[in-house]
From TrEMBL:
Protein name: SWIM-type domain-containing protein
Region annotation Disordered: where it falls in the sequence: 209-289
TM segment ranges: none
A GO term, aspect molecular function: zinc ion binding
Domain SWIM-type residues, every copy: 123-155
Keyword list, A-Z: Metal-binding, Zinc, Zinc-finger
Keyword Zinc: yes
The UniProt record lists the keyword Metal-binding: yes
PROSITE patterns: ZF_SWIM (PS50966)
Entry-linked Pfam families: SWIM
């Protein structure tokens, strides 16, 4: 917090008013087993809806149902092709932490407890409790680099690959992934084949048909982009370099810089004098006369 206050005192005051469990990784709930908090999931979902957000409620819900139904099956087929007991992203993090643990010094204390020393840090690891003093293992559910050094010493470097699954949280394994997408969303017929709803909906004290509220259309085009915060910058556009086809220079085009492009005169080479321009048709006739 002191480093943040040195850069921006207002940011420090703003963070102090928020509970650390909402923004600081060391205070995250360890039962969730997730070390990343972001709202990109909602933004990605809105992007997937695309132009369907301007449709009616029924059409929008039908699009979401078909999209989720297809996603469930795609994820299930993808998971069945995994050759390891861990998902690819979890396995990639373990390989990264294992590579970083090679520079650490291990001191075994017995009863699956270790003290791992680094260039500028030292932490205590308890393999029996699946905990590291840095807190990363408890929050993410994936062994950190300190835990990987202790696991490699306890199991042996040759057996780490086969036994590492026992030190990863159960919710991050392939079996848990398969269980998540084990269900399915059954297809339903087209709206034209749905059963007709009775004219009178059974509502206590209501004997007349309930009509939906009238649909009001706001003037102008419907907004597609989400509303950004006051301190949030605009959406970044595509960037690139434009190369002119005439002069082959960057950030220039033949349309905007046509006045600066001069045509190149071709010179013909004649015997005796290559620097003189080619004779015209009138000069050639005069020479023969």
């Amino acid at each position: 917090m002191d480093e943040i206050g040195g850069i921006n005192p207002a940011a420090k005051s703003w963070l102090q008013e928020i509970e650390p469990k909402h923004w600081s990784r060391h205070a995250y709930d360890q039962t969730i087993r997730c070390d990343h908090v972001t709202n990109n999931m909602t933004e990605a979902f809105n992007s997937m809806l695309g132009t369907h957000r301007a449709s009616s409620y029924l059409e929008l819900l039908e699009f979401i149902r078909r999209m989720v139904m297809r996603k469930f099956q795609d994820r299930k087929e993808e998971c069945e092709q995994w050759n390891l007991a861990l998902p690819p992203r979890v396995n990639a993090k373990i390989l990264k932490n294992s590579k970083e643990s090679r520079v650490l010094t291990i001191i075994a204390a017995g009863n699956k407890e270790y003290e791992v020393l680094g260039p500028n840090e030292g932490y205590a690891i308890k393999l029996g409790e699946y905990s590291c003093q840095c807190g990363s293992w408890q929050v993410s559910g994936i062994p950190c680099r300190h835990a990987m050094a202790a696991i490699s010493h306890h199991c042996g470097k040759a057996a780490v690959k086969d036994k590492i699954t026992a030190y990863v949280h159960q919710s991050l394994t392939k079996s848990a992934y398969m269980q998540t997408y084990n269900g399915m969303i059954h297809p339903i017929p087209d709206q034209n084949r749905w059963l007709e709803v009775p004219a009178c909906i059974l509502v206590e004290g209501q004997m007349e048909h309930i009509d939906p509220p009238p649909r009001t259309v706001q003037p102008g085009r419907p907004k597609i982009l989400r509303k950004r915060e006051q301190d949030e910058g605009p959406k970044g556009g595509k960037s690139g370099t434009v190369t002119c086809k005439i002069c082959n220079q960057n950030n220039r085009t033949s349309t905007t810089t046509s006045s600066s492009h001069q045509p190149i005169q071709q010179q013909s080479t004649f015997e005796g004098s290559s620097s003189q321009p080619p004779p015209t048709q009138t000069q050639t006739q005069m020479d023969f006369d």
